[in-house]
């Protein structure tokens, strides 16, 4: 199942990209995201292990290791997707049942195709795309306030 870890990770990286000159704390990022700071620290650790960001112990903030255009959404998804399965098949269908005995193999090929389509879509989009979209929406929102 797609967990919110992915969207939280994209949110974190978009914050890091948008506020490059500021030392963002996990508490500040957590307030923006609407999660506990422990979640931010956990995901930040995963992003660091995936070599998407670098951080320094005891110093707030993070820095992107690669340019925004070189970080695909698939890179981010892979960094935080612990199981590697978009869909989870139920664990114990009855092998005595004609459907139960064959559901995993039958459904699995369709789910694999869906996972490949998702990966392809994520690979074709970057953190730069998301960051630009956030900035574009902020600009439109400010313009509406002044009219």
Secondary-structure element series: HHHEEHHH
CATH architecture: Orthogonal Bundle
- State the major sheet: 2 strands, antiparallel
- The unreliable regions are none
Short description:
Helices cover 57% and strands 7% of the residues. It has helices spanning 4-18, 26-33, 37-49, 73-80, 103-123, 127-145; strands spanning 53-56, 59-64. A two-stranded antiparallel sheet has the order 1-2.
Structure description:
The protein is mainly alpha-helical and 147 residues long. It has one domain: Orthogonal Bundle (Arc Repressor Mutant, subunit A), CATH 1.10.10. It has helices at residues 4-18, 26-33, 37-49, 73-80, 103-123, 127-145; strands at 53-56, 59-64. A two-stranded antiparallel sheet has the order 1-2. Strand 1 (53-56) and strand 2 form a beta hairpin. Helix 1 packs across helix 3 and helix 2 crosses helix 3 (37-49). It is elongated, with a radius of gyration of 19 Å. The chain starts with a helix and ends with a helix. The mean pLDDT is 89.
